[in-house]
Amino acid sequence: MRLPRLVGLVCLLVIAVLTILGPSLSGFDPAKQNLRAILLPPGTDGHLLGTDNLGRDIAARILGGAQITLSLAALAVASAAAFGVGLGMLAGWRGGVTDRLLGALSDAVLALPGLLLVLLLAAIRPDSWWTLYAGLALTLWVEFFRVSRARTRVLTASPAVEAARLLGLGRWHVVRRHLWPDLSLQILTLAAFGAATVVTALATLGFISVGLRPPTPEWGVMMAELLPSWREAPWAIAAPVVALAATVLSLRLAAGSEG
Amino acid sequence: MKQPLHALALALLVAAGIGLPDAYAQTRTDVAVAAPWHVSGIDPAQDGYTFQRMEVGETLVDADATGALRPGLATDWTVSDDGLTWRFDIRENVVFHDGSALDAAAAASSLNRAMTRPGILSSVPLEAIEADGNAVVVRLSEPFSAVPAVLANYTTMILAPASFDAEGNVVAFIGTGPFAVDKVETPLSLAVRRFDDYWGEAPAIEAASYLSASRAETRALMAESGDADVAVTLDPAGYAQLKRVDGIAVEAVSIPRSIVLKLNLARGPLADKAAREALSLAIDREGIAAGILRFPDAAATQLFPPVLKGWYDADLPPLAYDPERAAELLAGLGWEKGDDGILTRDGARFALTLRTFPNRPELPLIAAALQDQWRAIGVDLAVSVGNSSEIPAGHQDGSLDVALYARNYGLTPDPVVNTVDDFGTGGGDWGAMNWDAPEVAEALTAALRQSDPEARSAAIHTVASALQQELPVIPIAWYQHTVAYPVALEGLVVDPLERTYGLSAVRWAR
Amino acid sequence: MAISLGKLTLGRIVQAAIVALVVGVVGFAMMEALPGDAAYRIAAGRYGYDMVTGAAAEQVRSELGLDRPAAERLLTWVGQTFTFDLGQSAVTGERVGHAIDHQLGHTVELALVAVAVALLIAVPIGVLAGLRPGSLFDRISAALAIVVRAMPAFLIGIVLMLVLAVELGLVPAAGHGHGGNFVLPALTLGIVLASVLTRVVRNAVAATVASDAFQFALHKGLPMRAAFLRHGVRNAAVPVVAYLGVQMALLLEGVVVVESVFSWPGIGHALTHAIFERDVPMLQGTALTLGLMFVLLSFLADLACRALDPRLNT
Amino acid sequence: MRLTVEELSVHAGSTRLVGPISLAIEAGEPLTILGETGAGKSLLAQAIMGALPEGLTAQGAITLDGRRLDTLPPRQRRALWGHEIAMLPQEPWRALDALMRSGEQVAESHAIVAGEGWKTAEARAHDALSGLGLEERAMAAWPGALSGGMAQRVAFAAATAAGAGTLLADEPTKGLDEARRDDVTALLLRYVEDGHLLLTITHDVAVARALGGKVMVLKDGEAVEHGAAAEVLHAPKSAYGQALIAADPANWPHIIPQRGGEPVLVAEGLGIARGRRLLLDGVGLSLRAGQRIAVVGESGLGKSSLLDTLAGLIPAAGGAVRRLGRGAAPFAVQKLYQDPPAAFAPRVPLAESFRDLERRHRISRAEREMLLERLGLSPGLLARRPDAVSGGELQRLALVRVLLLQPAVILADEPTSRLDPVTQRQVMEVIGAIARQSNVGLVLVTHNRTMARRWADSTLDLSDYTPLRAAG
């Protein structure tokens, strides 16, 4: 296992453990405010990373945010992968009309800029997280679809699959033995990049105030809230930014292949 | 496509880190303004306030910084004994920007056209507006003492007849102000230049530009980098930051706008006065003012801020912060805390949804603070940050629980017009909801009709104290209007009524 | 499996038609499903939130005929679109077509300069890293690209504005009008694009240099520079250009954020406001234009690929 | 002109890949290196050229006309490329830049390497290519459109354009059919006759025989034979040398043709098409159980398409394919592939592929073990993944996999073209023997006419069925 990949996986593990332990780790309630102790520097009165512009403990909010952001990212990527790879294999395997139809559908979705789709969905139900999830998943599945369709098309024409079919081995054998081992590596890479895109997109949505409803501690919303006081308390905005960068960096390293 | 190449060269220069000669060295004759509001059209009914603040359009009646009325395009005005007819004498030798002269007929037609569009005129019982010789006559169906104040509002700006097409749509903004329109690029920018044939004192600066920058951080940075000379409505952090930058002066002026909580009294929990009082007691106004707004003395003790003389009543008992008292009041009403810490009474949870909107950066933050403070006394408040129009929509269809917004009581120099709309019978989109208070309605109509000062202030007093006790609307804080400008820009006066940026009176030092 | 030029063009036209339909219907259906009353939102957009009252909303409702059944309004919109009349903005009353031309011009200018900046950054770094894969420079540029990619565009924008406009005073911070305003938004967008483009260029160059064709060019005696210019560049350009076509989605998303940070009157800015102010015609107009712009750019990328690689247009 | 190499060896870190090898080449006396694929032959050429891939190092003295090359700094060593020493690549169609016209790739060597003006360079290139038998159309064509033979000639012209005195040819005839192979050999001979030095690396004994000069045979990275071509090719001393020579199909024993059992596969008036183009017409074939038919023809004539049509994978463009007797059973017609690793699921251990097959057709493990033993394969091989098993063993495993279904017909598409001569001979013997014992009809597609004559009961020459010929 190459070093960068190992480092990536270790970081991911650390982040996962912190996420599972959640806000209780910091000993503070992420929503508890103290308006007389706003923007405290790290380390004062037991606040590991200081307090935000409403006096809430930043460390607790980062951990709480991790739970929301990462679970949303995992969910969106998982469903996008399942949906995209499934349709990709179908299109690659069947070819002909199915392939063209699904290809046109993916092009249409691709033509609609991702953010627009998410904006529209988020605007329908401004405060529910499932519309965000649906929007993000809808924009991500196309990538999985295109990769798996291309690989499936190549593999179905390969001698190995032709021989398997001549030998009477069914479709599931081909998928389990030929398609999945080949695709799984690439899907893992795409998933890592997909998760990174979701995390960044949530931050952007938070910035144009379409994100989740207060007081949910979501990294993107935190950045938007803490951005105005970046000169007064640079460490406050630094916390979500570093958390986001660390997560995305470790995802990319864990994914291994060149991004 | 010269632009991109030019920009590319600049990008290269930047990459090479070569400093550009300081283009702003010699004494300047232009001023750039940055504010959050869009210039979505040139119709006074739409975003007209920007044209008034940039002193392009003027109204018959003007108001000074204290809110006292003074002559504008009308030199003086009288009212008939029965209070139904007002005469406004039009100022002599005033010229529109297209050179045409201002006369009573032009003023009357401009006002008649304004009546066809939503605006302040719709809350006045108007019969007709006609020109009579060199005066504009306003006929009413019933007495209305605030007609001059209404004619000071931006929706009643006087435009030259050539500004309108056949259907009354505005095709060009031809006003009478010291500055004329140079170029409008909706929705973000407006450029004006000095109008040399202005009837009043000619301004020192020759040109001014207005840029709509919706992000508060951008406005603060533009002020600091010198790209915007006058940056308006800064967010608390931006204001605190610019205070520390030398060469830049910041001012915070309390204006007749209050941050209030609108309550729907038809909702079970909010019907009892004691419950509303408890909710008010649970609010830490000093904490919000100091922590979020960064102006400790912005904490509201009553609805009307001190700047509204006559309406602010010093001897009204101030609103207090006493969570224990609040808990006792709620217990007295039969609310007990459930295991999730939320009060319940005969099966119903004390849960409400607060609607607010992000255009004013501090509102979502205050909403989050209220959510936490009410939770402490067992009230579950959900916060929904959406579009500002969801509040009047909720008022009309009754779907609203609670709303948080900043209500402007200075739409007209005399706040009576707003208060009638907000607290008259049946309440108002931006005022009380399902609050029957006949004695307040009576007092308001009296204030509206009475011209005798004692009777009027007695009526106002009844209204103010009723609002303080009944709390149909819970005041949170008095709004501070913030402006930042270079020290070198002399003579800038910040208008608390937000009627003008005061560009005609400024000049650059040196 | 190279498809003929004719078929490709037809494919793209069909895709454009699909985009128009999807954007129109989906946009419309979503706007219908939005909570709250569209008339109130539009009134807030037009008359400012102080003036938004029940009366103002009623007037808007009757003026725009918002009480007509949804299907009827959609049909009128579809009918108009085919005659290239995108109707009137419900908020500003301006003709949508006109507003978009005006704003589209700004966004296209910004996008062009951003792509130029991205190439200016990505090509040199990508080539240097690609020529020495695994070197320290390669690893550092990879890590840097990943970190920049992780940063949301608005953070990059604010940092650039702070450093270049406020501290150094080199360029105007925001707004538009004179040329200087271009620099910061284009630079921000360029950096966002370059963060991904650098890796694509690096991979393309590394693959080309390791290919048999390049090795043979060297073995023939061609000096490194001549071999790279004559054989390296074209072969590396094919995947880069193909990637540029797909990457337009990232560009369009960046535009939405960068335009709101720098108050650049582009189509991205108009899009976010159209959604908040529920300005249906404006939303559909901007979404349609963004979608078609994307289809056009992917088509141009296809053509560029075919021009570079003869094998594609058999 | 003289090239000498003393004690040359190539190392990957601490492990020695090939050598130490010493050799000498004079003008007019080419040296040909023979040996198994993967014995490190190419590394020798790359070491001499000074173009070893990253991570590999060479030791030993290399002198050209009295000048030491191995001690030269890389920049000066590279300056010799094209001018003094040139290398002909293994797969020319991959070595030519797909995005530049063929003629231009030769002209650029004249212009840039040899330093002639572009005008004269283009004329020189044109003369060189027409001298090698390429028409105008080929010169202007993209490399992708050239046949293997043409691509090799363009590569040769490009490599020698700058007048290099020494040429290292690495597997110049790989993937070419007999006619094209002889063209390339003639080309190399002419290069030698012009007084240049030639080092050729090949696994094809016939090429070594044609080139003459000296021959060296490599086994496990060491030289087991080294001497004049005439001696080594006729009376090799080492065991491997003898096996190598014996493996040349020309030295195979003649087959005793057999009638075979009842017919299992019959095709009459068969039309073969790929896409819209009609490749072959009127093809007739009658295969009996246990019988072997060889199908020969130049590459690109449609051999593989014929096999796919017989296997029922693609529809016939005309005529019909009928399966008779045992041939009619399901899974009775099976296929063996040209590139053994490509016929198995790449990322899955072989045992799993076999287990799936056995479970699908309810075949007992014992049958598989018995077949493995008969084909001399150790069961332990199945634990590995395809890419960890040699080409020869994989092809035999493919045969086992097919035989598990007791097929009536096996269609073999150039099964040994990727293998070296010794393994090729073993595999062909095994296939022939098993077919006879299991009474299976065999159709072998190959471009090697000698092998076809020595191995099959009858031969079908596809050039008799090309549409022009059939129509004419």
TrEMBL record, chain A:
GO terms for molecular function: dipeptide transmembrane transporter activity. The keyword Flavoprotein does not apply. CDD domains: TM_PBP2. The keyword Heme does not apply. The chain crosses the membrane at residues 68-90, 102-124, 130-147, 187-213, 233-255. Residues 66-255 form the ABC transmembrane type-1 domain. One of its GO terms (cellular component) is plasma membrane. Its main location: membrane. It comes from the Bacteria. It is found in: Cell membrane. InterPro entries: BP-dependent_transpt_permease, MetI-like, MetI-like_sf, OppC_N. One of its GO terms (biological process) is protein transport. PROSITE patterns: ABC_TM1 (PS50928). Keywords: Cell membrane, Membrane, Peptide transport, Protein transport, Transmembrane, Transmembrane helix, Transport. It is a multi-pass membrane protein. SUPFAM superfamilies: MetI-like (SSF161098). Belongs to the binding-protein-dependent transport system permease family. This is ABC transporter permease. It comes from Acuticoccus mangrovi.
UniProtKB/TrEMBL annotation, chain B:
InterPro entries: Peptide/Ni-bd, SBP_5, SBP_5_dom. One of its GO terms (cellular component) is outer membrane-bounded periplasmic space. Pfam families: SBP_bac_5. The keyword Signal applies. Residues 69-416 form the Solute-binding protein family domain. Residues 1-25 form the signal peptide. It is found in: Periplasm. One of its GO terms (biological process) is peptide transport. Transmembrane segments: none annotated. SUPFAM superfamilies: Periplasmic binding protein-like II. Gene3D superfamilies: Dipeptide-binding Protein, Domain 3 (3.10.105.10), Periplasmic binding protein-like II (3.40.190.10). It comes from the Bacteria. The keyword Acyltransferase does not apply. GO terms for molecular function: peptide transmembrane transporter activity. Keywords: Signal. Belongs to the bacterial solute-binding protein 5 family. This is ABC transporter substrate-binding protein. It comes from Acuticoccus mangrovi. The lineage of its organism: Bacteria, Pseudomonadati, Pseudomonadota, Alphaproteobacteria, Hyphomicrobiales.
UniProtKB/TrEMBL annotation, chain D:
Keywords: ATP-binding, Cell membrane, Membrane, Nucleotide-binding, Transport. Residues 3-245, 265-470 form the ABC transporter domain. GO terms for cellular component: plasma membrane. InterPro entries: AAA+_ATPase (IPR003593), ABC_Ni/Peptide_Import (IPR050388), ABC_transporter-like_ATP-bd (IPR003439), ABC_transporter-like_CS (IPR017871), P-loop_NTPase (IPR027417). It holds the Pfam family ABC_tran. The keyword Membrane applies. It is a peripheral membrane protein. GO terms for molecular function: ATP binding; ATP hydrolysis activity. Its main location: membrane. It comes from the Bacteria. Belongs to the ABC transporter superfamily. This is ABC transporter ATP-binding protein.
